[in-house]
Records
---
Amino acid sequence: MSTLSFLWEGLRHLGTTGTITRSSPALCRAAIDRIDWSAARTIVELGAGDGVITRHILERLHPDGKVIAFEVSEDLCDDMRAIGDPRLVVAQDSAENIRAWLDRIGADRADHIVSAVPFAALPPELGRRIVTAARDNLRPGGCYNQVHYSLKTRDYYAQAFGDVDARRVYLNLPPAWVLYCTR
Ligand SMILES: C[S@@+](CC[C@H](N)C(=O)[O-])C[C@H]1O[C@@H](n2cnc3c(N)ncnc32)[C@H](O)[C@@H]1O
């Protein structure tokens, strides 16, 4: 999707996209930081958009790995399907349904979860359900990395995971945060 179309998609559905720009390369790299790529086989991505972070994941993912990328917008899912990588499973579904999609690929748990779901723009009950589902379906020792533009919903992750380590990424418009948690 072109930058202009992405901006238009963001404006049309601001209540669910939470942004009009996609993550910069620096933010994408920070979002997948702290993943042990030598051992990771099952990555779950929440709020994948048109696949900007997904592409970075696929670059580093093991040839036998899988990434399940959740996205609610049909148009953005079509963009991800066009990536055409057999390791990518596009889940056109709400991120709270992680369990059902792990079952589809025969995975017990996710090794790591990367999220850019705009929780500050979503109803709190939905946000907390998604974060709880993420925690429950993450293997012990796995990391949960959350991209955000503010720290407004930091307590969602603190309640689910305990410690939250926040890092500012200035090379993004607007400057963003990545919050790192470990199960
Ligand atoms: C801030 S954008 C991030 C897009 C891309 N990952 C990036 O980093 O630029 C958030 C995305 O989350 C999606 N989203 C919103 N609610 C969702 C939900 N309940 N489940 C899955 N995705 C959702 C939106 O449609 C939007 O594409």
---
Amino acid sequence: MATDWLAWHEQYASGSALNQRLELVRRFIRAALDAQPPGEIRVLSMCAGDGRDILGVLDGHPRATDVRARLVEMEPVLAGRAREAVSRLGLSAIDVVTGDAGSTDAYAGIAPVNIALVCGVFGNITDDDIRATIEHLPELCAAGAHAVWTRGTFEPDLTPQIRRWFEESSFRNLAFEGVPGTTMAAGHVVLDGLPRPYRSGVRLFEFLPDEERPSQRAIRGPA
Ligand SMILES: C[S@@+](CC[C@H](N)C(=O)[O-])C[C@H]1O[C@@H](n2cnc3c(N)ncnc32)[C@H](O)[C@@H]1O
């Protein structure tokens, strides 16, 4: 059966491990926002869900009206919820697109961004797709861009390799933290090297069928 991403979002109940991951991700996003110089701040979110990570940070943040963002989410109900949240915040420069975040076409007109969010993605795609997404990220980024990412540390733990892939793509690790007592983890990196020009039509990733998704290992435990 295909994952019910609406039900998945219900795990964001207060105090849950996922909610603790959200707090970690929001802390990294806040640090990325606070590091931005005056002027427009461009943001993209791949597989944004209902957008609660970035939108929760922007709520009441002094830089909120400087942000121009594109949130890309395939599930129409979740995208609709993100749109409602944007409207409640009165932030007219935030677009929520119902569509495929796995192609660079989704970022035409918003790239190069100052902050890229890749949260809830790396546990659902192949290792090759993770590597491709990271390798192509400098084509979506402005100089000095920050990126926030997540991936569980369940065995075999791919997070050391993911951090190496970021380094090989000229990103410097700023933080990598786990939620204590769980396999949930998030990272924060900054682009030290040169960004590359945006290219349309590049395939970054595709979500795997449920039974093949690495994140299922965290749920099932050791076979
Ligand atoms: C694990 S959830 C993460 C949601 C959000 N980023 C978060 O961390 O709360 C993965 C999300 O990716 C969406 N999704 C799956 N494949 C997608 C694709 N190709 N393009 C855009 N969204 C996709 C799902 O609908 C789901 O909402």
